[in-house]
């Protein structure tokens, strides 16, 4: 039935996408995050929607007559340099060639998405449609799983969809945390126009919090806690925010299981937790790779290649200052890096990590600067709110993914592109329009009259 409904709507969707490239762009990120194939079982399951929608987006942009001017800015330049760096690390690396090509291709698709967000998004409508597409993908799944969690009295354990970019529950929980600031922006922007949207977004944000708890992800809870603290410090409405947090904690306490409580208790005793110390072992192996290959690293998934894992394990005790307690490399199999920072360090070297962190820091600072400039005018105040929320998204990602191999995430690169395009294209255009409007209504200053001397 789902296949029939979606396939019936597909021609209409394709027509709208062909007419409006920004709609195609929104559907591109929607398919990347929603993974429609996992929800269908018949003919609809065989179609590569993401590839189809990406192709239509690219074609629609190429035939578009009035293309907005392209300004890559510092973020676009650094992302391009980083991608070129990964090309070199892939060529010179020592990882499994099949895995290297798979991850390089995956990153290529993400970078292409980043480029076309820069090329297509030109106004507020485009930004809002992109963000609503994110909400109707990750947000839909969060709402559905949150309802299951509440309906089961906290017994439902939330997992990602198999084969999906968010298939891992830890990565899924971080994506849920990143979604909260986006929902807040949409609430402030559209909630005042409709009570349905207002209460719907508030309900969705509550379900997202429940879903984060339901994943039983320690990284997700750390990111959620960090997000609340950051929002509390930044917010002008500290009392309502504290009350809201208290209500959510009170409600959540009825659905927290003993297993969940035990997992969260290990955060304070990380040094005694085998799972966490196993991650520290992977971090050390990634560090050893970077020591031997400081410029380009070892390539994608370098420590997940068994010959590399064995060779690095033999050098494990050569760096005693990198403390791992009694934990040692697993002699039976490899493990992922389990940290975006050590993942990048091992895969692309100290230089690759520095480039990645550079565009993250630049984007964070640009979002803050964008927010300050935009708040000076009523017409651009929406960018002031969104700039702050995008800062929170970056902060949540950097905090939550510190213990995850999650460096290449479609949504984050898309949000970085939004920051770039708002800073270099949308805000300057709106400020210029404001100045033009003010100049048009300003009274003309009469020219001084020269006195005529009588003869």
Kindly describe this structure.
By secondary structure, this protein is an all-alpha fold. It has three domains: 1-67, no CATH class; 72-120 and 269-431, no CATH class; 127-268, no CATH class. The protein contains 16 helices and no strands. It has helices at residues 2-19, 21-34, 49-63, 73-92, 97-120, 124-151, 169-190, 195-214, 218-234, 238-253, 258-265, 274-292, 306-314, 340-374, 381-400, 410-441. The protein starts with a helix and ends in a 14-residue tail after the last helix. The mean pLDDT is 89.
Number of domains: 3
Please count the beta strands (DSSP E, at least 2 residues each): 0
Average of per-residue pLDDT values = 89
Low-confidence stretches: none
Distance between the termini: 99 Å
Q: Specify the structural class.
A: mainly alpha
- Major β-sheet profile: none
Shape: globular
Oligomer: single chain
The percentage helix is 55-70%
Order of helices and strands: HHHHHHHHHHHHHHHH
Strand residues, percent: under 5%
Output the number of helix runs. 16
The radius of gyration over CA amounts to: 25 Å
Protein name: Putative O-glycosylation ligase, exosortase A system-associated
GO cellular component, one term: membrane
Main location: membrane
GO molecular function: ligase activity
